[in-house]
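Input chain follows. Return structure tokens only.
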Amino acid sequence: MHKLVLLLLISILALVVLGPSLLAHFYLNLGFVNLSQAELAASGPAAVAHSQRAERLFEQAAQYAETYQAARRGQGFNLLARGDKAGAVAAWQDAQISAASLLVFGENMIEQRQWEQALIWYECAAQLDLAASANAWAGLLQERKNYAASFQVWQQALHSFPEHSQRLSWWQGLAHSLRAREQWQAAVQTSRTALSEFPDDPSLLTGLGMALYYGGEGLEAATDVIQRAIALDEDLAWSFATMAQIMAREKQYERAYTWYSKAIARKSDTEWWYVARANVARSAGKLPLALESYQQAIELYPEYAAVYYEISWAYYLNEEQEQAVAAVEQALALTYTPNLSYYIRAGRIYEWANQPDEALAAYQQALKLAPDNKRVKDALQRLEEK
């Protein structure tokens, strides 16, 4: 209670000495100071106290016309910190804050790898202006593999803004979300609907070709569409990579290698394409070419665990024990999240290299990840019988 009395006395004194204009800014500035202190405290009684104090000060500042909008902005930030997104958005709408401002906060969170916080800012921005925020919000949802949510955002944007200039990117995102969830028939239908609006978009055509192939429509139907996309844009690397993927699935490994090479020539910063190209060379039985391709990938991406995982098997097939062991160990060292297949491969390579203790340790790690995995259980039993 004494704090409220003290604040009241300070307010009266400020009103007498400073006048209404400076008093309004006094409330506003002190509100933001308390908001900052609440954020620094993060949680606990101190954070709650500063947040409550900030709210009272913003309420005082909002009583003056010249500080009304700024106070409502502060109230929005304070409400969001409390988890009240709806209240925050209402305050920001009242303050006429732009969605672009909130998108900047989201981008800052991405730079700090705080994905969930970024999603909150993007969602709030979308409540203010869905059209301006849809790609940022849905795009991050997609990157975080929340394809159902990204689909809903793009679908809502398409429904809400039938004449908007961003519709092509929304259609592309919508179709991608369906393909990522392997909803092939829906992806085909969506791609065709999008193509009725944008008939010559090579990205939509490539996506349609992929959906046709994996949806069971056949190789020819799929490749015809993708070839049309390539004819429209010979620089769209994804079209070439999609052809490579289809050729690999068809076990046409040499053709897949050529298509991956064409994709890489057009976009040289997609690390997985280098590994996939080496994999199809390995599958074709061209081990020297595969090893050369893996080494190129390692030179470009020395911290990429997958390339060491894949080259370890090429060394295995080439009967190079020391190199195979070193590669699979490097793959495990670079993997931040325990990976079942990595431990199984490590166990098999260790067995082959006559390192039973290391093999046992690798299979035991695999068993922790998959206690009912028959392959792992059989491997452990095999080692125990030796």
